[in-house]
Amino acid sequence: MKSALVACGAVLALAATGFGALVMLLVPAEAASEVPSVPLATVPEPYRPWIERAAADCPRTEMTPALLAAQLDEESGFRADARSTAGAEGPAQFMPGTWAVWGHDDDHNGVVSPHDIGDAVMAQGRFMCSLLGQAGASGIADDLRRPALAGYNAGWAAVSEHHGVPPYPETQKYVSDIIGNLPRFEGATLVSRIGGSGDGPDAVRRAAGQIGVPYSYGGGSPAGPGPGHCADGAGFGDGRCQAETTVGWDCSSLVQYAYWPSRRLPRTAAEQYTATAQRPVTRDDLQVGDLLFWRHGDGHVYHVALYAGDGQMISAPKTGDLVRRGAITDMPTTDYLGATRP
């Protein structure tokens, strides 16, 4: 992990020699629309309250807003008018027979419709909650979300017959896509759960909106995510330079973006530590938005993250990874330098 994370501390000096990261740094905030777009961890506003409510109504711990959001994205791309050639309707793609069982007038508009966002999402939640219960009682040795999702797609009878995700290419892709996309939507739901006001909580909410965006060495600026570059072994993956073709963030560009423009932090992790070191924070006094730093034995600061509360942080870890929330203890304890408050 150490060698992969050195990228965060050295990028500005490399950019000054002509690499693309410096160009990205100089893009003004109002030019953000010109930065290549990426699939951000967002959920359309009309869906958010219904997703939260549907998840909260299910007692199963496996049921989360992110699971429902990722499933809706896979089913319809959040299109309320979606219809399939097989006859499935609405954002949650209910077949008529299944809709007759699970559909209610949850939005109280006098119509029970699979095209009504409230009705569809609440029905999706009830159906998935039931499938998670069946998966839990089945004895299937798997992440219970997988057989439940397979049951939604192929029917529980197929899951029961094969004692797990059935060997249907469509169903296997469906399950894999949804589980793989969960990090994107975990960020979206985390945004709404970060309380407090001020620069720190605002910065963490902004960073949480980037969960699921790829790591890109040298990529990103105050204007948004961007392609990076490769140098001195950093930015490479699978034997090729991934950074040049990856629109994303490295650890320090994510932190810079999160605080911009209320706190105009410098570009690298080392510079960010120097700029904030006069305001140190102990582990017992950490607040949401504080900066966490790690260094090598020679004193070089190689990683920075945002404290998100409850022992968690938001960071862009390394090439091949995504911006994500994780425990502070995921990083080497012996490398922990300390925390500061911007």
Low-confidence residue ranges: 1-7, 9-41
Gyration radius (Cα, Å) is 22 Å
End-to-end Cα distance: 26 Å
Mean pLDDT: 86
User: What structural class do you assign from the helix and strand content?
Assistant: alpha+beta
Tally of helical segments? 13
What percent of the residues sit in helical stretches (DSSP H or I)?
A: 40-55%
Coarse shape: elongated
Portion of residues in beta strands equals 5-15%
Strand order of the largest sheet: 5-10-6-7-8-9
Order of helices and strands: HHHHHHHHHHHEEEEHHEEEEEE
Quick one: biggest sheet? 6 strands, antiparallel
Regarding quaternary structure, what we see is: single chain
Q: What's the total count of β strands? A: 10
How are the SSEs ordered, and which strands pair?
Elements: H1 2-5, H2 7-15, H3 20-25, H4 48-56, H5 65-76, H6 96-102, H7 117-138, H8 145-154, H9 156-162, H10 169-193, H11 199-208, E1 226-227, E2 236-237, E3 240-241, E4 247-248, H12 251-259, H13 269-276, E5 280-281, E6 291-295, E7 301-309, E8 312-315, E9 324-327, E10 336-340
Antiparallel strand pairs: 1-4, 2-3, 5-10, 6-7, 6-10, 7-8, 8-9
Helix pairs in contact: 4-5, 4-7, 5-10, 7-8, 8-9, 8-10, 10-11, 11-12
